Amino acid sequence: MRRIKLITAIVLCVFATGCRALRNVDKIAVTSVGVQSVNPTSSRSAEATLLLEIDNPSLSFTASDINGTVKYKGKQMGSFTAGTLPVIGRTRQVYELPCTARLSEGASLLEVMRIMSKGDYEGATVDVDVHVNLGKLGKTLKFRDLDLNELMK
After folding, report:
1. CA dihedral sign of residues 24, 88, 131, 104
2. Sign of CA pseudo-dihedral 46, 66, 82, 85
3. Average pLDDT over every residue of 80-90
4. How buried is 96 (Cβ within 10 angstroms: 0-12 exposed, 13-18 middle, 19+ buried)?
5. CATH 2.60.40 fits 25-151, yes or no
6. Distance linking the first and last C-alpha atoms of the chain
7. What pLDDT, in 10s, does the model give residues 92-119?
8. How far apart are CA 149 and CA 70, in angstroms?
9. 45 Cβ contact partners less than 8 Å away, ≥ 6 residues apart
10. Is 151 helix (H, G, I), strand (E, B) or coil?
11. Which contiguous run of DSSP H or E holds residue 52?
């Protein structure tokens, strides 16, 4: 009888811990974004590595099929794609995310370089779609009009 009570207590503790971690899913946040490197591959595209600081008080998950669009004062400047990013649970950590960026039609490299050289991204926004897998569960999340100036701080 004592053994059954002990096993029940352990199972309840594990379950409670898991539930607490799931309650924190809405607190997962990208706290900062930076550009580590940019390597042009053509006059309209580049390979880049982003630095993402992610505060994850919840369980480990994998972000994949990451796609986004960057706009400046309402004008679409370019798009980017990235592969898979495993995010460790219950940590605040900086991750490197390799991606491919392409200029949109009507946007010039000179215009983008001018904006980037200022270091002020006022008026720049980003739309991001990302598929998140938590074990066997998965969902595509869509974020619209994220203020790039706030993310880059």
Report:
1. positive
2. positive
3. 95
4. exposed
5. yes
6. 58
7. 999 999 999 999 999 998 898 888 888 8
8. 12
9. 100, 101, 102, 103
10. helix
11. strand 45-56
Rounded CA separation 153/148 (Å): 9
Contact 35, 18 (CB under 8 A): no
**Average confidence (pLDDT) over 82-93:** 95
* Residue 28 pLDDT level (bands cut at 50, 70, 90): confident
User: Ramachandran region of residue 54, left (φ > 0), alpha (ψ -120 to 50) or beta?
Assistant: beta
For residue 41, the one-letter residue type is: T
Choose between 48 and 18: higher pLDDT: 48
pTM, two decimals, is: 0.78
